Amino acid sequence: MTAGANGQAAVLDVANLETTFTTPEGEVKAVSGVNFAVQAGEAVGIVGESGSGKSQIFMSIMGLLASNGRAQGSVKFHGQEILGLPVAELNKIRGARMSMIFQDPMTSLNPYLTVSRQLTEVLVTHKGMSETEARRTAIDMLDRVQIPEAAQRFDMYPHEFSGGMRQRVMIAMALLCQPELLIADEPTTALDVTVQAQILELISELRRQSNMALTLITHDMGVIAGLCDRVLVMYAGRVVEAAPVGPLFKDPQHPYTAGLLRSMPRLDEVMHERLTTIAGQPPNLQRLPAGCAFRNRCDRQIEVCARELPALRPIAPERSKACHLPAL
Amino acid sequence: MLQYFLKRLGGAIPTLFIIITVSFFLVHAAPGGPFDTERRMTKEIEANLKHAYHLDESVPQQYLRYLNGLLHGDFGPSFQSKDFTVSELIVGGFPTSLGLGSLAMLLALVVGLAAGILAAFRQNTATDYTVIGVSMVGIAVPNFVMAPILSLVFGLWLKVLPVGSWDKWSNIVLPVVALALPQIATIARLMRGSMLEVLRSNYVRTARAKGLPNRITIMRHAIRAAIIPVVSYLGPGVANIITGSVVIEQIYGIPGIGRYFVQGALNRDYTLVMGVTIFYGVIIILCNLVADLLYGVLDPKVRYD
Amino acid sequence: MADVTVQDLSQVAIEEVAGRSLWADARHRFLKNKAAVTSLAILAVITITCFAAPYLGLRPQDDVNYDMMPAAPPDFAAGYYFGSDDNGRDLFVRTLFGGQVSLTVATVATLVSLFIGVVWGAMSGFIGGRIDGGMMRLVDILYSIPFIFFVILLTVVFGRYIVLIYFAIGSVSWLDMARIVRGQTLGLKRKEFIEAAHANGISTWAIVWRHIIPNCLGPVVVYVTLTIPNVILTESFISFLGMGVQEPESSWGTLVSEGAKVIETAPWMLLPGIVLAVTLLCLNFIGDGLRDALDPKDR
Fold first, then answer.
1. Most CB contacts within 10 A, which of B80, B250, C61, C244?
2. C149 to chain B, minimum CA–CA distance in Å?
3. Is C22 among the domain residues?
4. CATH assignment of the domain containing C220
5. What is the pLDDT of residues B100-156, one digit of tens each?
6. Counted domains in chain C
7. Among candidates B265, B287, B283, which has minimal Cα distance to B274?
8. How far apart are the two ends of chain B, measured CA to CA in Å?
9. DSSP label at residue A300
10. pTM surpassing 0.80?
11. Inter-chain contact B239–C144, Cβ cutoff 8 Å?
């Protein structure tokens, strides 16, 4: 699945990505054999629990792994291999053609520099703009992300902004160079519920305006529903199901996906006594059970699940799952 | 920012006041007087001396007189060096001490910061362990133990640096290094720890994600944030250099204020000891103010308290 | 809805985390710190040797041997492990007895500073409000004053008596302790058992003494081990200058002072300085080890 509808190379093409961390207790494979592609203008959601590897995929792609991490495989950005690219070369891409925003806006901005400085440096570096030009462009962008009185606030420090506003600043910063791909790693998790909706709406709107591709990482299925075209469900470092958003929600084919959907409280359902959960805990990546990693929490485990790791195989056009069960 | 500075200044003044007052009353609470150790005098001469030095006035009166004198830069006469006033002694020794202290502080900052940054980038390698090890030794070993060792090793055995009086360039190396060493160690340690923390921070991750050249990420984002604890240390650092200089000047026979202080202390020259204490106190307070200002420039959050 | 049976749950591989008490955890971490443990051992050896000196069958410290005059280098055969000083006295023995003085001053002065600091910090933190503000402002002000000068001033004025030195040094070393204890107290104040004590009508002082102070133990222990080297340093500093411990007593500081004067002709005279430095280093490692054990951060 590497060519888009009109035959162009995918914006992002990940093949066999494996990310390993070396710890005192041994090696931990945070990402095992992940394959997916993101087409121009497409919004792909990556959903999974903490520790499922969803963030580490993109840390690997952006070259932001911790020093004890190693990524292998292939990551192509517009056909160009970027995994293992020297930092100087990677710097031409990240922040300019491919940007990332992070979960915690409170700590993701440098508290000792003005917001103006943190914005203009992106433009000066990537577009060679002068300070004046860069300031103008940046203030424009702050307006677009709906920061009130952007010009007056421009030279303030991050601590003078609220959490929601800081995340808007982060978004502005990421979009300054009109990137082709925005990677959003749990952009609303640390925010108030009301602000969450606003931020998601903002991202959605900005995407529409510029036809930018988006990968949205989250553990919240509700966030996916409103924003994404396609979804990848991750468990224990592997993709366990991939599908367009509609079919995934209507007709999940992996027990884990089904469990995630069931555990979402819904307004239109009768109130049960308890919230539904998926029994058990996420697995310890250093001691994965043989066979399917999910089997100990699965209510439909069959004999083969303990023996053989299910591969991700296509089950319908644009749908694939990693499960031994025939169909749910 | 102005408000912050004024607040800091406001804190400095009571401090100075306390130093002056405590010194003064301590000295005047002393059993016996400054002339007791001298050869016995007749009652008349003693009375005359007392009158000349205003020691026959009541203590509060003497205090006010002293304060008044301070405002005019007069620290009173030296009781032991009959030919000089304390001010003259201080002014005479100050340039030397200033030179020694400034060079030491400069050396400490340059070497300490460089070592700390280097160690942070090469964490858990031989370089890192060396820096940590040398720092521990530098912090723990008192400079009056280190100075003779340095003289021995570099002066006598290796014959690299001369151990002489404070006149030629080559002679100042050993005293400056001996004085700077504990501060180099402290600053290196502080910078290393701070740098490690900053390099792992979310905002440095953002800087990298923005595709900023490594140079800019390190200089503008990392070092600027990491240096703040070192700036905090500047105040105590200057105080440490001042106290260290007392011993270093003694060991190397450098004619600075520290040496006068020690002699004054051993000779029970009250005004001299008091004067030097207050003088050094003023310098420390001034340096603390400068450090506070610098801190305010670097850390915007502090300005808006 | 998933049918989860009890049997299913028992098959779930939940990682078992063995519970450990806070102190056991800290002790475990401390023992893993090789530098700290080695330092503890070395420190113990030094301390025990110093205080056991009178019983080790060594020659007395003021025993003058004219054959070993002026300063003679170490002579293991004759039993002069550190050689002799300018007056023909056994330097090793003098170092041991000097150690007694230095370590005693360290302990007493630290106890003085501990007492002042803990009480000040606990009362300040517990009473809170303007009194707390005032007490801590005083600490801030005192922080920027160069203490050694005041200790020296004290000795100039009142004479160089050993007891005075204990108190002089102790009374200028309590600031960090006060800050730490105040911080701890502020945290503890909000806990329920304090409220309960209050509700039972126990006086402020009793609460501070019986509940707050015992619960600050962890950080206090760390800071005590960091205060001791500072105290030893202060005492050595003033003794080095000749304003501290006086003859016939001698501390490591006075011994270093004597050694520094003749360093070129008798380098072994600096050996007491080495012992001093090693002691301080050990104390620093132990203090760091304790701090890491009780409050681990990625180093």
1. C244
2. 6
3. no
4. 1.10.3720.10
5. 999 999 999 999 999 999 999 998 889 999 998 899 889 888 888 888 888 888 877
6. 1
7. B265
8. 10
9. T
10. yes
11. yes
